[in-house]
């Protein structure tokens, strides 16, 4: 299993990013697309698995978890 220390160092920082976008979808549909397609747009260099990333998954409920799945059964809860 490969865990990139560079990604861990970046995750440890308290950086904050904010963005505002307008989409022609209802909030519920936009959220579903955002959470189901997250692995398509999330930069691999900001994951523990790097290019070995298998999936990012965000639970669609209040208090839900964002987690990463990587090679060899690797899983980490991001938030």
Write up what this structure looks like:
It is a single chain. This protein is α+β, with helices and mostly antiparallel strands. It is built from three helices and three strands; from the N terminus they run H-H-H-E-E-E. Strands 1-2-3 form a three-stranded antiparallel β-sheet, with no helix packed on it. It is globular, with a radius of gyration of 14 Å. The protein starts with a helix and ends with a strand.
Instruction: Give me the count of strands.
Output: 3
Helix content: 25-40%
Strand order of the largest sheet: 1-2-3
The overall pLDDT average reads 82
Radius of gyration from the alpha-carbon trace, in angstroms = 14 Å
Task: Jot down its keywords.
14% strand; alpha+beta; three-stranded antiparallel β-sheet; 3 strands
